Amino acid sequence: MAQTSYSVKTIEWQGDEVVMIDQRILPLDEAYIHHRTWQEVGDSIKTMVIRGAPAIGVAAAMGMALAAMQSSASSYEQLKADLDTAAKGLFETRPTAYNLGWALKQQEQIYGQPGDPDEIRRRLKERSQEILDEDIAMCVAMGEHAAPLFPKGARILTHCNAGALATAGYGTALGVIRSVFRRDPGIMVYADETRPFLQGARLTAWELQQEGIPCRLITDNMSGYFFKKGEIDAVVVGSDRIAANGDVANKIGTYTVSVLAKVHGVPFYVAAPTSTVDLGIPDGDHIPIEERDPAEVTHFREVQCAPAGIGVCNPAFDVTPHENVTAIITEAGVHREPYSESLAAAKKGK
Ligand code: MRU
Description:
Blueprint: E1 11-14, E2 17-21, E3 32-35, H1 38-46, H2 53-70, H3 76-91, H4 98-111, H5 117-146, E4 155-158, H6 173-183, E5 188-192, H7 199-211, E6 215-218, H8 223-228, E7 234-237, E8 241-243, E9 248-251, H9 254-263, E10 268-271, E11 277-278, H10 295-298, E12 299-300, E13 303-304, E14 317-320, E15 327-330, E16 333-335, H11 339-347
Helix pairs in contact: 1-2, 2-3, 2-4, 2-5, 3-4, 4-5, 5-6
């Protein structure tokens, strides 16, 4: 059994408050934000205090529990109306991460049936904690399934941050790397910096450094150089949404890495819990891609690095076609083509 120790608490209940580490200011500052309302949780999802599909799902589930506590409703009908409003508001925060809608549906299973308002309030909070605990367990299981896929001394490229910070803890892609490292301390990780939000430079590099996992930070445009030199043995990334055919949405730039991996004959692995798998869409063309604020591209924090008024594109995600994916690892195991069958089997009963 892999250890689950990791240094970061991404999100947790403290009494009746939801506390998140502020991922916008890491690694230079470590601060925690306390949330008492679903609106505050929604703002933190939108502004990336918390980010990463599974972590967003946990936050949404906790946001629904806060919404129930905020509501003064004494009747089921009024509570349901208040919760529907909260669910709509939370759903609209970020469009690509499937875990967000998945978590809201989990909560809807509780408040969608008439019942005693106080019992619904209790269950929503309890379920949000279960979703957090299940997420960590799924990450650990993914690590166990995936670790044997990596050769000894593997040099592994990852993109964005799919670590403890992007989940309830342990991580998907970084969870896999943690599990590989525990079996083989001789591995080396190349972390793409991941422009424009720098999740790789700020978060992945920080997580790996804290655990003493050997890491080299590279800019996104350097990976081709290292593939060509034969210095990358495998790629592992997370995902925000996986379509029924195995097409994978992940942080912008992931598609480019998958093409490089294919050209160079390097395995390209995706690690994601089944709560990221959207069997309701046939392929990646149906995945909504979030367009974010141009200031993320023209500025770093307050510092401007492009001419004022320049036109900007800032899609936050891209889609890697399933043909470029060697295997998808979920908590249920290692899935390969045809993904339409293997993913459907993994989701069965969930
Ligand atoms: O915009 P972000 O930082 O929320 O994007 C995160 C990613 O793309 C991650 O790779 C993905 O959510 C998987 S996290 C386990």
